[in-house]
Amino acid sequence: MLAHAMPLLAVCSVFRAPGLRRCMTVCVGAVGVCVVLAGSVAAGGDRDGTSASEVRALRVEPEAIVLEGASRSQQLLVTAERSGGGTFDATRACAMITRDLGVAHVVGTTVCGVADGATELVVRLDALERSVPVQVRGFGRYPPVHFGNDIVPLLTKLGCNSGGCHGKATGQNGFKLSVFGFDPAADYDSIVKESRGRRVFPASPEHSLILLKPAARIPHGGGHRLDIGSAEHQVLLEWLRQGMPVGASDAPHLVGLRVSPGERTLGLQSSQQILSTALYSDGSRRDVTAAAAYTSNSDGVAEVRPGGRIETGRVPGQAAITVNYMGQVAAVEIRVPRSGAPDPYPAIPRHNAIDELVWTKLRELGIVPSELCDDLTFLRRLYLDAIGTLPTPNEVRGFLKDSSADRRRRAIDAVLARDEFADYWALQWADILLVDRNKLGDRGAYEFHRWLREQFARNRPYDQWVRELITASGSSSRNGPVNFYRAVRSTEDVTKSVSQAFLGIRLECAQCHHHPFEKWSQSDFYGLAGFFNGMERKPLRADVYMPEGTTPELIYHAGYRETRMPYSSALVPTRPPGGAPPTLAEHVDPRQALADWMTGPGNPWFARLVANRLWKHCFGRGLVEPEDDLRSTNPPTNAALLDYLAAQVVARGYDLKAVMRLILSSRVYQLSAVPNEANADDTQGFSHYYEKRLPAE
Predict the structure, then answer these.
(1) How far apart are CA 310 and CA 67, in angstroms?
(2) What are 98-108's pLDDT values in tens digits?
């Protein structure tokens, strides 16, 4: 059968009109010819300009296909390996067919079951061929639909539970869902039991509002969201026909999401298929490529289409594609090099390891950096970035008269040793730590700022003064860092400020629902909040030094208390984000345990965040942007460089001045702001110095 089908594939692959594709999908399995046509839809896709002789091997994912039940299907991902090295996505360039069309068939680039049995999928690209075993089980029955595992992800994909639709606080037109499905039990009650919002009609499932409204069969403020006959429509309809079950309480639950490829280098105006696989607690896996939601952090570099197909444009650079399925997130990193890169790539001088890591990334992207800036530009840049002021005329003359080869290094050392360094950086951190005289009073703001300046004047290690701030207790009129707990007063506000200021984790979303772009849930938010649950603030009588109307406070932690989740009142173990719960004794300040974990060398965020802050201050753009939003779905533009800088923060004993000296001494920092032909549109690789506005300080 296969021998007769393959020649037909080449003939039929020209019929790809959308209408015909829908027809083939509906008719598949009815007659042999229709089945073969369906299998041929994948042929004829992009080949990334690679000829047949340049392809040496094919890699097909998954390596084995198991379809359990009538509703299951499997997206394919085919990667071709070039003879000279490198890969490209060949998913839509291959011919695909199963050996036994009575067991399974191919629709587009997806394998679907026909009947129980075993067969092989054959994937062919020119003379290369790969076979993948296929098993179909339980095709005669539709698997039991689980509300949390099957319906909630569908509502998320369709946008029904987004903050702009039924997920907002007041709902929409009498129908309310939890944001991004963080509370499946409440969503079930809203859909099935709510007197006004109920969206089901058990007597006639096909006429349920949950089907008719998103399909625009009756007026719907959210517009057309669902196609009749689509896979999403079939899942909803089957759930209604099965009696709208909640699902078994012991059903396997989602524990992870795996995407492939994790990273890929693509050419301009090329494409890449993503394969998304959900991992469940019983060890089973399910293809969720069509059900997952996809977003790009740089649409100009790479956009992503429904179904997980990435398409690059005409702009070189880097992009991260976020894949989100039921609160589980993953990312695909895309690099798009510039066409016409110099070959060979020129040898560029380096001052330290920072330069080598930047040149390596620029070489990957085909970008050549600018030349060094002149001495006057360097001196002005150095003074403004390090101490926030311009050099005096005498300092300029002295620098220009210095003919030594290391005059720039000696200028850096001299500037970092000046008193203005402490003034300037105390002001920078005062902004981060919310030193506001309107909230703290004149005395509180003065004491907090004075304490900050002292840390930089002494060049005290960063981990030590952060530990003192996190565990601060005492009078706000005498103990500067304790005023941090006056600027943010509620347990929730302290939690959000600490996580963002010192870890680069934006937990505010997780206060109410699962974070839409990261793994953090409500239990993570209130687990961290447990360290601050029990903070006490007692007013003190103003002493003679206090301005009239200013009331100092005694701030301390009264001892560990268990934390409960709002609404459910369930107890939440106190623990740091991604960490294990420490042993906490009653009447002991739990902030000590948090400080131990936070400032420990194994913390994955503490050193990375401060390294990224220093980099952004010097260059106007962080390796991660925004600089305090470190997450897997917002990867750095140069991961190796950020890893190196974070390691240097730890290795140098959290000496921020030493790390800053390392950055200022690099050739990258001293590049000209004038771009060349190869880097004029580079905004991520630091191939030239980016112009930036002077800060208010």
Answers:
(1) 26
(2) 999 999 999 99
